[in-house]
Amino acid sequence: MKINNNILLTLITSSFFLFIQIWGKKNPDEDIVILYTNDVHCAIDETIGYAGLSYYKEEVNRKTPYVSLVDAGDHVQGGTIGSLSSGRYIIDIMNAVGYDVVTPGNHEFDYGMDQFEIFAKNLSCSYVSCNFRDLRTGKLVLNPYQILEYGDVKVAYVGISTPDTIVKSVSKTFQDENDNYLYDVDGDVTGEKLVASVQEAVNSARNEGGADYVIALGHLGENDEAIKEWSAPFVVERTSGIDAFIDGHTHEITEQLLQKNLEGQEIPITQSGTRLVRIGQVTIGKDGSIKTELIDPEEVKGVDKSIVNLINEIKSSYGEQLNEVIGKVDFNLNVNDENGIRMIRKNETNLANLIADAYLYGSEAYGGADIAIFNSGSVRASMKAGNITYGNVIDTIPFSNPVCILEMPGQAILDGLEMSARKYPDENGSFLQTSGLTYAIDPDIPSSVAIDKTNNMFLGVTGERRVHSVFVQGEPLDPQKRYKVISTTYILMENGDGYVFEGSTVINSQFALPNELLISYIKNLGDDIEKYREPQGRIVFSKKPEDKTIINDTKSFTVNDTNLNSGSGKRIQSNAELSGILFLVTFLILYNRI
């Protein structure tokens, strides 16, 4: 019987690593403690905070000389301090705390490639990623791994970035002026490219680097929010040589998830949630065993005063302006429900109504719009009853994606709503909130949205639609009529979250930031903010009625396997698109206003 050469090579390689893992490992003379963070999203002094993290690190260091601190991505974006400094202050704080290895998350690219390169240059330990690639050269942009030594034991940290980065950050970051992609994160439909890159890095770390242990430091995720073929369990299952997987991206609290690897060995996967509500800890014991655990805030008994002073110094440079009151409310404006579930990602909330109306109100100065939409994942914090400040607004909408107005057929809007509703009742960061438009979802109808699995973009609807009863300004939406829509360039022009709005033309582009629109709207509302005490019923869940005149019944089509994998999602092309220089000037002007 003939054996495929690739299979034979895999068997030989896997057998070799199994031998090394069983017989070749050195045990450390003291415990090796690897502290980790993931998805901190600018939570510099919430809960544990960086000062608590630094204190805990020093406490552990008193018990063992072998302590390292690593991060699994998404640290420079998600709060006021990140927005106002384009992430620079976060790098300063991380350097002061003393990180040893960091993997970039998708949001490290939100401020553009030039800014990411500044991060990479200024971060004292730099970044690692085994699958972030320059398509012009075919070479990796960053080192695939970093090896740290603990006595005579070597531990390799292999960086793994999510292939979802291209969609989950700003697509333009990875393109040239003609929208040609310059970078890739080794994503394909099967996940084979990602797996191959990871295995190559692991092999190199062990063979060339002489690593005794390999820790994957990934930004992939484990649950259904992650694309299965790009998830941590999928990678572990198809590789050998990884001893533990520190993960991020999906904000999961996972003390330990055991996943069998290619050799049938159980490998622990761990993730600490988000915003430093816990510290992750992986310990390589003196007997070679590996333990994963999560450190609760109650276990952190103090703060590092030097980090507190640094954060206070940074805050004082912009604190006075951020504390300026722009409005007042005597009820909470919510992202989460009373159980802490991110309700905004699968239903409307009063805060979602307020923000969507701010978009629509803001459009009036720039030609006006019929409809406002925005993705729920762009809202990162609730607003509590009391005074509303500039800082509150920026914490709520920290992203720097500018706003635009496009004109598009009703059919494109219906397709967008179907894409938005496809994951209900699960949480979905791309779930669309609206103003000027109301719609219903029939949860009993399975989603038939077709996705291009190469880049996670919308292709079409292959069966019955679950979205119905769509009204614009009180009138049934007409699939053939053209409507003006305001949202961010991320959603309307850059295929953010996989949205494709066919037949669109640009009316006005990059004229404001979402948080600027919200600040202006709140200032003008005054006591009228009372109308946002409760959600207004813009999104309802009901059976689809029989009357076709109000359900906006429209075309579906068959998508074959070729189309599903063809990458046919189209970007908007427009002569009205501003040059990079003009956008930079506009961006800086807007930030100086607030």
In a nutshell, what does this entry contain?
The chain has 594 residues and is α/β, with parallel strands linked by helices.
| CATH fold category name of the largest domain | Purple Acid Phosphatase, chain A, domain 2
> What best-fitting shape do the alpha-carbon axes yield?
globular
Number of strands: 26
Strand content: 15-25%
| Main beta-sheet strand count, sense and barrel state | 6 strands, mixed
Mean pLDDT: 88
How many distinct folded domains? 2
Distance between the termini: 72 Å
Order of strands, widest sheet: 5-6-8-9-11-10
Helix count, DSSP H or I runs of 4 or more residues: 17
**Helicity range:** 25-40%
Radius of gyration: 25 Å
Estimated structural class: alpha/beta
- Which blocks of ≥5 consecutive residues have pLDDT under 50? 1-23, 556-594
- The CATH superfamily of the largest domain appears as Metallo-dependent phosphatases
Report the CATH C-level class of the largest domain.
Alpha Beta
CATH architectural arrangement of the largest domain: 4-Layer Sandwich
Describe this protein's structure.
By secondary structure, the protein is of the alpha/beta class. It starts with a helix and ends with a helix. A hairpin with a 2-residue loop joins β22 (467-472) and β23 (475-476). It is globular, with a radius of gyration of 25 Å. It folds into 2 domains: 27-310, Metallo-dependent phosphatases (Purple Acid Phosphatase, chain A, domain 2); 325-445 and 469-555 and 569-593, 5'-nucleotidase,  domain 2 (Alpha-Beta Complex). Helices cover 28% and strands 22% of the residues. α11 (350-363) packs across α15. It contains 17 helices and 26 strands. The chain has a 6-stranded mixed beta sheet. Strands 3-2-1-12-13 form a 5-stranded mixed beta sheet, with helices on one face. The relative contact order is 0.11.
